[in-house]
Amino acid sequence: MSDANTGGSEAGSDHDHDHHTGPGYASPQAAIEEGEREQLAYVMSLYTGSDVDAPDFVSVVDLDPDSETYCEIVDRIEMPNRGDELHHFGWNACSSSCHMDGLERRHLIVPGQRSSRIHVIDTKDRRNPELVEVIEPEEVFEYDLSAPHTVHCVPDGQILISMLGDADGDLPGGFLELNDDFEIEGRWEPPGEIEMNYDYWYQPRQNVMVSTEWAAPKTYYPGFDLDDVEEGKYGRRLHFWDWENGTVEQTIDLGEEGLIPLEVRFLHTPESTHGFVGAALSSNMFHFWYDEGAGEYRAEKAIDFEARDHPDWEMPVPGLTTDILISMDDRYLFGSNWLHGELWMYDISDPANPRRADSLSVGGTFGEVQGVQGRELAAGPQMLQLSLDGERLYWTTSLFSTWDEQFYPEEGERGSVMLKADVDPRNGTLELDEDFLVDWGDCPAGPARAHEIRWPDGDCTSDVWQ
Amino acid sequence: MSSYDVTLERVGGPTRTIGIDERETVLEAAQRAGTPLPYGCRTGACGTCVGRLLAVDGTASVDADAAEDGIDVADAFAYRREPRALKPRHRDDGYVLLCIATPETACRVAVGSQVQSELVDNPWK
Predict the structure, then answer these.
(1) Coil, strand or helix at A227
(2) Which of A106, A283, B11, B102 maximizes the CB count within 10 A of its CB?
(3) What is the least distance, in Å, from the CA of A350 to any CA of chain B?
(4) Which of chain A's residues have a Cβ under 8 Å away from the Cβ of B82?
(5) How far is the C-alpha of B87 from the C-alpha of B119, rounded, in Å?
(6) B119 touches chain A (CB under 8 A)
(7) Beta strands of A106-231 (E only): which ranges?
(8) Chain A contact for B1 (CB, 8 A cutoff)
(9) Which residues does chain B have within 8 Å of residue A169's beta carbon, measured at their own beta carbons?
(10) pLDDT interval class at A9 (50, 70, 90)
């Protein structure tokens, strides 16, 4: 799509991208056409929860097949403290800010999930980024928030971070706002709008934000306990917000089939009101959309992954769908079933009726491929990232240090890997690239875990269009 | 002000005894003594630093299975704040959050990431 033919809304009708000088691409299609092949990846890398006496770090991974250091970690930006559990991160500015002269998509905001410390990394030198600011946990606790998770830039240059707990690791969570000098501006929403929090995404042209629910930090931090599920301590609801007012307009309870809704994505098209959320524990995908007639959002189960029996496991093993991603052209939904060891790809041209295109059985409990280049895989596919052109899908294998320890204890001993599949969007196929392997087992201080992946020039899970 | 000898036994690793001031947390003392322990939140919410009390001042060592024989964390440690990451069953089993625990007697504690991984096991296996 282009902005020229997407009119209709007030925001769209005066939205001229012809001469903007800000960061990002004018539209998702421009990102596909103008974006170059990813040369580097920034990857969250961690030692928290292990016996390795070293801080977490951000890895710079060489993805240029013509480079001598292809598939190697070419730089590591160490955090100043141990114990952060780096998890998710985001940019100070993205394509939503494309009218903001003077803004540059240059700084990575890197929170510590366990420490509640927030770091700012300057990526002006792409291969040698530099840590430039640190917000200490005590500054965050002053706003009665902890456990920072999803980072998105906000259209006027500010940064919004979903926070999963209060200062004690209890509920409720909320949202912390930083200004463009990377100082805490305050709480974004009036207190009391939500109890549980996790991921969020917004569609500014529709004045809507959607947020999901994990649990209180003190519930999920130590590990996953089925008793907590039975006691209702894990989330199953979606919250639809008035984006300008910062208030919840509608809450949808997804029920038993929507237990632990984690990653949530609107389609990239800024006009769209369709999106998907992965219910991790129930291992179902829900499609949600705005029902014009009813004047509210609706959510329906669109994909169901069945639990599977395994001789070594006493109960049927759920897929545990921990990450999902929508291609920049909004044509495919990708996801990872971490316990099963499956990557899947669905055609979502008709979002209400996803059609299975292909899948890859790799790692995890059932994966057909259990090693790459002789390196045994310890865990299933987890965090995903896709090239802007939709032709290369990358993933890492660590979920969360304590949950890794429960389900894949070998992950901590061997470290994580980053793998890649070649995607054929025309034919809707996935093929494992056996020549690609990045191994965190070889890190100098000892085996490390690897989590979320970002490209320097924006990617399929961090860019939102205004 | 008192100081107590706390013996930290890393599971599968070295054992080290350090004198810990009663106003000091085990984590702070371990860092001061150059004996790194895993940790995360430092507020008792995340459980990364968890240890398991093995014996209190001169009593015979026990393992987790023998916890019902009565080893009580409250005999050995005070908490600076609520140990939120521990459930009642964990507290009963002798688990202690070393980032917020200050010693009240000499004792022996199992430490290291192995202790954390004992806390919650795989519910499907």
Answers:
(1) helix
(2) A283
(3) 35
(4) 168
(5) 10
(6) yes
(7) 107-111, 118-122, 130-135, 146-153, 159-165, 174-178, 184-187, 200-203, 208-211
(8) no
(9) 41, 43-46, 84-85
(10) very low
DSSP letter string, A6-60: ---SHHHHT---TT--SSS-SSHHHHHHHPPPP-EEEEEEE-TTSS--S--EEEE
The amino acid occupying position A279 is A
* Structure tokens that stand for B38 in this block: 């895993």
Compare CB distances from A407 to B42, B86, B122 and report the shortest one's residue: B122
C-beta atoms of B48 and A83 within 8 A = yes
Taking residues A349-377, what's their average pLDDT?
Answer: 97
The minimum CA-CA distance between A53 and chain B, rounded to whole Å, is: 6
Query: Are B85 and A51 inside 8 Å of each other by CB?
Result: no
Q: Does the pLDDT at position A10 exceed 50? A: no
Residue A26 — pLDDT band, cuts 50, 70, 90? confident
- 3-class DSSP state of B39: coil
What angle (nearest 5°) sits at the alpha carbon of residue A156, between those of residues A155 and A157?
A: 95
List of chain B residues with pLDDT < 50: 64, 66-68
Tell me what pLDDT residue A272 has. 96
**pLDDT digit string (tens) for A238-277?**
999 999 999 999 999 999 999 999 999 999 999 999 999 9
- Cβ–Cβ of B46/A317 closer than 8 Å? no
Give one word for A144, left, alpha or beta, with left for phi > 0 and alpha for psi -120 to 50.
left
Contacts of B38 in chain A (CB under 8 A): 48-51, 83
Q: Do B48 and A114 touch (CB under 8 A)?
A: yes
Helix (H) or strand (E) holding A61: strand A57-62
